[in-house]
Amino acid sequence: MRGCTLFRRRSLAKPYLLRPFCTDGGGSVGGGGDDFQSSRVKIFDRDLKRTHRDRAAWLMRGKDEFVDSVAENLLDRLEDCKKTFPVSLCLGGSLGAVRSLLRGRGSIQKLIMMDMSYDMIKSCKNAEKDMPNNNMETFFMVGDEEFLPIRESSLDLIISCLGLHWTNDLPGAMIQSRLSLKPDGLFLAAILGGETLKELRIACTIAQMERDGGISPRMSPLAQVRDAGNLLTRAGFSLPGVDVEEYTVRYESALELIEHLRAMGETNALVQRCNLLKKETALATAAIYESMFAAEDGSVPATYQVIFMTGWREHQSQQKAKRRGSATISFKDIQKQFGSSS
Q: A biological process (GO) annotation for this entry (predicted)?
């Protein structure tokens, strides 16, 4: 990616076990007593997003430092697991980066690469000949994360890198993922968080107020950190974990940022979007962006907040919390003991 510089800042977040993150609507899909509701509200135009993914398949060229950094960070979690994952699914998003950076991690024997875009799958299949084999069979399929075409309890691992934040029913997609996992199967996901592209949001809002006299939705709604914990709990994953990293990518101009978003397939796909963006509003957005955020060398920063989620399908061998009230020693007794000893 020409002219871009990547910086990274990490912060840890405890798993949030708050109220369930629910969606409205009817129609349920069951599996072992676990149901999920299908959202009636359509936030994203999935057909348009498929078109964006088709375009991204042709625009992606060479290495993308930001995407590779996120994929590497996500796959690092496999090195912390002694367990092996013979049958795995790579789900949408940054398929190519995940495939090239696996490097034998997880001892995967069969890898299924799935995306809603035929062109993206075709691009990944064409690139497979240049990938290290590591005694791993790779299969390719076109499918939608919202309607996962995978048999229940058939996978050991699901990896989704920068893809699930475009689903209309994220809790439902995660529940389907859990049901597709075998007991003690692992779910790894990275999604963009609410602080992503905050500089562009500010510049776009100011430009629209100045030029159009009002604002229209140009940026997608994204999950907050607390939502990620709620999502894992709502989906029924055990041992949930959430952490956050912020990446700052520097571009030569605001227009180069837009080109990068197109190459990643991350442009606006809201159902209630405004299809027309006036040229003067677009130029004003770029000018405001550069005047407010440009560095001394003329480069402009863009913040990407990435939320990493980890969850396991329940298994009897996993750690479980003791029943509430089962403790045999009170904290008051412990406090008295240490207080008296000091």
A: methylation
